[in-house]
Design brief:
single chain; about 525 residues; alpha+beta; seven-stranded antiparallel sheet; six-stranded mixed beta barrel; 11 helices; elongated; PEPTIDASE_A1
Length: about 525
């Protein structure tokens, strides 16, 4: 029976496709993997938009992947199910087998398996556009045969496990378990320039409990220290895309000291993060803390819809108008303001007006029990979920505006404006390329330090000249407590801040990139 990944991450798009990489060897005990990227073009944008239409299923993915309502064991949810890699930006080259067969892979800290297309992949068109592993051509191949499949937000790959030597830079990891993919149905894998994925997450989320490549590097004594680090070159005019360093970090890649935070839950490189600020002002939702994941396999910044709507409003991004949001503001807006002024507990307001229930610490959507068929029940429940989530966002928005002593009319108008800026599920939000100078900084508080992103750093440019389009680097992902609210800090953030993954001390570090 196949081994199935346990599903939370994002499905996010915008694909920066990249050229094959060159390995660099040095005598300082560090293993360097050079990264390059190809500029994102109009064809990739069309493919990404097609994927986002497929990805409308994200609206129901919270229920499908156990996000809905009260959560039990933390193992019920993970991020892999929301990945689609249309956004993948930085790629590198590895070799599998003896002699090495070359593959271009994403080095992904948001998953833990290594997989590449198999020569036995006969019925997926995507396989014929990529390098395929041929076990018969390797003298170090060992048969395993256990089946496996990994489900992403817009598709899945399936195949079977094999074992062989894997070459990463100048290192050879012996007897590495990996997946030979025999089915790649998603358009993501058809149009992508990468062949496979090399996961750098923890073993806890590894499909089939396969020991990750990074673990074997450490266990086989191939690296100087149990640390690896990422430097992404965000200068679009330079050919060099960046570098992964296994065994430590390169001082040339960063300025000053790193701010370290402990990993709070193994699986992903997850840590606790503080408030998110727009132009130095709190957004409210992460004031008491949010979880965050440093994810090199995602280009964008994914966070709670309420904050993304505030960011989109501040930068003038155009999203999809949410009629549910406007309906909540129109019907309950004045009541919410009155209850806030009466000093009612904000977390109880949506349950008091009947849109959510209250579990003692937070609102949860009202479960609709019925003997009618499951599909009708699911639709009704989904609408109820949307109203509950929208109400909770509106409470935070209005609470922030009351602190600024705004009038009721201004607060309701502001809430309606934010409704118009709600991003589409898995969708991008466009911004005016000529307006970057007037956009605010967006900042993240990590380890007590504020990390600023300027508009030039969080806006992605597609194309050149008059045909250029600008896309917000922020997209929505809503994960309820206890695992949420959750942020995924992808390459937009990691490009600005050199990132250290300290496996030995179970911590993540950030410093200004050089």
């Amino acid at each position: 029976m196949g081994t199935r990944s346990k599903p939370i991450t994002t499905a996010l798009f915008l694909c920066f496709l990249l050229l094959p990489l060159v390995f660099a060897a040095h005598n300082d005990g560090l293993v360097r993997i050079g990264l390059k990227k190809r500029k994102f073009d109009q064809n990739n944008l069309v493919a990404a938009q097609f994927e986002s239409k497929e990805g409308e299923s994200l609206r129901t993915s919270f229920k499908k992947y156990h996000f809905h309502g009260n959560l039990g064991d933390a193992e019920d949810i993970d991020i892999i199910s929301l990945k689609n890699y249309m956004d993948a930006q930085y790629f590198g080259e590895i070799g599998i087998g003896t002699p090495p067969q070359k593959f271009t892979v994403i080095f992904d800290t948001g998953s833990s398996n290594l997989w590449v297309p198999s020569s036995k992949c006969y019925f997926s068109v995507a396989c014929y556009f990529h390098s395929r592993y041929k076990s018969g051509h390797s003298s170090t191949y060992k048969k395993n045969g256990k089946s496996a499949d990994i489900h992403y937000g817009t598709g899945a790959i399936s195949g079977f496990f094999s074992q062989d030597h894997v070459k990463v830079g100048g290192l050879v990891v012996k007897d590495q378990e990996f997946i030979e993919a025999t089915k790649e149905p998603s358009i993501t894998f058809l149009v992508a320039k990468f062949d496979g994925i090399l996961g750098l997450g923890f073993e806890e989320i590894s499909v089939g409990k396969a020991v990750p490549v990074w673990y074997n590097m450490v266990n086989q004594g191939l690296v100087k220290e149990p640390v690896f680090s990422f430097w992404f070159n965000r200068n679009a005019d330079e050919d060099e895309g960046g570098e992964i360093v296994f065994g430590g970090m390169d001082p040339k890649h960063y300025k000053g000291e790193h701010t370290y935070v402990p990993v709070t839950q193994k699986g992903y490189w997850q840590f606790n993060m503080g408030d998110v600020l727009i132009d130095g002002k709190t957004t409210g939702i992460c004031g008491s803390g949010c979880a965050a994941i440093a994810d090199s396999g995602t280009s964008l910044l994914a966070g709670p819809t309420g904050i993304i709507a505030e960011v989109n409003h501040a930068i003038g991004a155009t999203g999809i108008v949410s009629q549910e949001c406007k309906a909540v503001v129109a019907q309950y807006g004045e009541t919410i303001i009155e209850m806030l002024l009466a000093k009612d507990q904000p977390q109880k307001i949506c349950s008091q007006i009947g849109l959510c229930t209250f579990d003692g610490s937070r609102g949860v959507s009202v479960g609709i029990k019925s003997v009618v068929n499951e599909n009708i029940q699911g639709v009704a429940s989904g609408l109820r979920d949307a109203m509950c989530s929208t109400c909770e966002m509106a409470v935070v928005w209005m609470q922030n505006q009351l602190k600024l002593n705004n009038t009721q009319e201004r607060i309701l108008n502001y809430a309606n404006e934010l409704c118009e800026r709600l991003p589409s599920p898995m969708g991008e939000s466009a911004v005016d390329c000529g307006g970057l100078s007037t956009m605010p900084n967006v900042s993240f508080t990590i380890g007590g330090k504020v990390f600023d992103l300027s508009p030039e750093q969080y806006v992605l440019k597609v194309g050149e000249g008059e045909a250029a389009q600008c896309i917000s680097g922020f997209t929505a992902l809503d994960v309820p407590p206890p695992r949420g609210p959750l942020w995924i800090l992808g390459d937009v953030f990691m490009g600005r801040f050199h990132t250290v993954f300290d496996y030995g001390n179970k911590r993540v570090g950030f410093a200004e990139a050089a």
